[in-house]
């Protein structure tokens, strides 16, 4: 059974960066994209970007261009999301989610990582 | 402001049927598959419907999806109290080259 397990909660100060990991298991890591979605408390889902673990190709939502970087380490089937120049409104739960290449849906989600940005 | 518009809340009695709408445009729902996600408080979203009308294994056939033009609908029949959750539609937007979600709908089973 496919599973995505994310790293633990983080507390950061404004202007800092955060890097969240997502360990994939139970399927062929290179065969599916990894997407990142965030959710502020009491708010809806916000798509951030996608990464093809096979090629390293990425695509980012306009709102995050220049601040988010998606990478992977195929040797340990792990995807990473790094968000820089953090602001207080970046406080949210960040999810990684697996999806097919056609980006039609997200069929398996990590448990979420709470990132708190506070001075 | 989400590109996909959902009602903030819907409600119905146990055993009844409810529909949740998701309105988009020709650059997203009008050209791409829609997916639906169910989210309970404190939990990650779960895929409920994909490719507009398909159910992953394990999802009861009480849940259904459909599309018409630039809109999509999630239907839930035989409502149970355990269906109380937030529901989100999602799709790809060709103009933005980005994934988009609706703002979410809170389902209350009275």
Descriptive account of the structure:
The complex is a heterodimer of chains A (119) and B (110). With 119 residues, chain A is an all-beta fold. Helices cover 0% and strands 49% of the residues of chain A. Chain A has no helices and 11 strands. Chain A has strands at 3-6, 10-12, 18-25, 33-39, 46-51, 58-60, 68-73, 78-83, 92-99, 108-109, 113-117. In chain A, strands 2, 4, 5, 6, 9, 10 and 11 form a 7-stranded mixed sheet that branches. A 4-stranded antiparallel sheet of chain A has the order 1-3-8-7, with no helix packed on it. The mean pLDDT of chain A is 97. The model of chain B has no long low-confidence stretch (mean pLDDT 97). With 110 residues, chain B is mainly β. The N and C termini of chain B lie far apart (29 Å). In chain B, strand 5 (63-68) and strand 6 form a beta hairpin. Chain A binds chain B through residues 35, 37, 44-47, 50, 59, 61-62, 95, 97, 102-112, and chain B through 2, 32-33, 35, 37, 44-47, 50-51, 56, 88, 90-92, 96-104.
Largest sheet descriptor of chain B: 6 strands, mixed
Q: Which consecutive residue ranges of chain A, at least 5 long each, have pLDDT under 50?
A: none
H and E string of chain B: EEEEEEEEE
Radius of gyration of chain A: 13 Å
Q: How many beta-strand elements of chain B?
A: 9
Helix/strand-derived category of chain B reads mainly beta
- Rg of chain B, Cα atoms, Å: 13 Å
Mean pLDDT across every amino acid position of chain A:
97
């Amino acid at each position: 059974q496919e599973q995505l397990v994310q790293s633990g909660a983080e507390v950061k100060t404004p202007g800092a960066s955060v890097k969240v990991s997502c360990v994939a298991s139970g399927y062929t890591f290179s065969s599916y994209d990894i997407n990142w979605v965030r959710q502020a408390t009491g708010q809806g889902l916000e798509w951030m970007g996608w990464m093809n673990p096979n090629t390293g190709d990425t695509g980012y939502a306009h709102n995050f261009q220049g601040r988010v970087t998606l990478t992977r380490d195929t040797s340990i089937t792990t995807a990473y999301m790094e968000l820089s120049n953090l602001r207080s409104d970046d406080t949210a739960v960040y999810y990684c989610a697996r999806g097919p290449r056609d980006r039609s849906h997200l069929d398996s989600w990590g448990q979420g990582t709470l990132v708190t940005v506070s001075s | 402001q989400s590109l996909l518009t959902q009602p903030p809340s819907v409600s119905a009695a146990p055993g009844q049927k409810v529909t949740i709408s998701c309105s988009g445009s020709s650059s997203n729902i009008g050209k791409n598959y829609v997916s639906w996600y169910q989210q309970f408080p404190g939990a990650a979203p779960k895929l409920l419907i994909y490719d507009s009308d398909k159910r992953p294994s394990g999802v009861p056939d009480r849940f259904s999806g459909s599309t018409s033009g630039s809109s999509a609908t999630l239907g839930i029949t035989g409502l149970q109290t355990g269906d109380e959750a937030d529901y989100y539609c999602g799709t790809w937007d060709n103009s933005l080259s980005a994934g988009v979600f609706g703002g979410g709908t809170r389902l209350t089973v009275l």
